[in-house]
Design a protein that fits this description.
Number of helices: 0
Shape: globular
Structural class: mainly beta
Number of strands: 11
Helix content: under 10%
Largest sheet: 7 strands, mixed
Distance between the termini: 40 Å
Strand content: over 45%
Oligomer: single chain
């Protein structure tokens, strides 16, 4: 059964660094885009970043370019999100997501990803 499990969230201070991890426990998504969305209370999920199954380049929401880096390790069935210079507005739940196999185009909409993790909370204090 396909399952995505996130870890690495927590409470940090403004300006800190945090690395989120998401493991594909079933090894299901080696041929899928994997990525991250953010979800604030009462709002829809918003695209953050994604990486193709080849792992050769990341795609980012314009608002996250420069501070966030997405990567994957297919040998570990994992995708990562490195977040630097964190700000209080980065305080949300971050959800790992995956597309169908060999999906066309960057999955920057919620409906592009049929597979989701439970999410991990990131809180950035002032």
């Amino acid at each position: 059964q396909a399952q995505l499990v996130e870890s690495g969230g927590g409470t940090v201070q403004t300006g800190d660094f945090l690395r989120l991890s998401c493991v594909d426990s079933g090894g299901t998504f080696s041929d899928s885009y994997m990525g991250w969305f953010r979800q604030a209370p009462g709002k829809d999920r918003e695209f953050v970043a994604a990486v193709k199954w080849t792992g050769d380049s990341g795609h980012y929401a314009d608002s996250r370019k420069g501070r966030f880096t997405v990567s994957r390790d297919n040998a570990k069935n994992a995708v990562y999100l490195e977040m630097s210079s964190l700000k209080p507005e980065d305080t949300v739940v971050y959800c790992c997501a995956a597309t169908q196999r060999f999906a066309r185009g960057t999955p920057n909409r919620r409906n592009d990803c049929p597979y989701w993790g439970q999410g991990t909370q990131v809180t950035v204090s002032t």
